[in-house]
Amino acid sequence: MANEKRKNLTPVQQEYHLFEKERETKRPIVRNCARAFLVGGIICTIGQAISYFYMYFFDFTEQTAGNPTVATMVFLSMILTGLGVYDRIAQFAGAGSAVPVTGFGNAVISAAIEHRTEGFVLGVGSNMFKLAGSVILFGTFAAFVIALIKTIAIQWGGL
Amino acid sequence: MAALMVASGCAKEETEQKQSLQGTNLMRSQTSGTAKGTKLDQGPAERAADYLRRREDIRDVVVVNSGDRLLVAYQIPHMQRWNRKKIEKDVEGRLRDMFPGYKVISSSDLKIFWKTQQLKTKMDNKRLDQREVNREIGRIEKLSKEQT
Predict the structure, then answer these.
(1) From the CB of residue A157, how many other CB atoms can be counted at a distance below 10 Å?
(2) Which residues cross the membrane (chain A) (predicted)?
């Protein structure tokens, strides 16, 4: 907590803060980063291999192989989530499994499984995109902003 | 299914590595660049390949020509990919200047490189005639323009 904010706390609150700080479990940041790097790297390697698979066996170029690769990765992570395997991977890897596109599939299916007891329409239907919805919204918005910046840079900046 | 996809994706990669992903000098000596065993004149292709091999920002090159078409496929070193668009534009412009009477089709895409490599091998082994080569070049050109 920032020092200025701590000054506003009452003495009891400050004492509790110190008490809490002493007993709080320290997060192994370096270990978590290493795990995320390794598992994220493995997921990306699998993605690259799938991309080469599509390029070699089908008429996809480097540029166009991205779409079926992403679809396959999301599909695989959905299957793994349904089987309960992806959750274990996510527990070990943290951000390494959440940041790649496979994390999107996991977010959709895990929410669907969680809310299945509430019914298919109001349970699965309305909660499936609870987390994934914000990913789609801000992803689309970010793409729009970047495209706008690029268009302005090309039109006026002469890039 | 995933394991099968990964295995087959990597299986091909290994053979391509031999001619495109190793050290520049070794790799350059392994790729012949143009179809030498064909009955079609590959003079322009040879000249284009010679020029591209001399460039530092190009790692590997395969060139085929037939009639007025010149198909150039090349690989850009990994770290030079930051300047991919610039390199592609420059190569295209230079080749157009070098071969004014030709329709130059150039690409740095790996798939186009594989396809051109296949065509070159076919030209060497099966002695394709100009019509067949033109048809194949047309197919590769169409593929290189594919956006989705």
Answers:
(1) 9
(2) 36-57, 69-86, 133-153
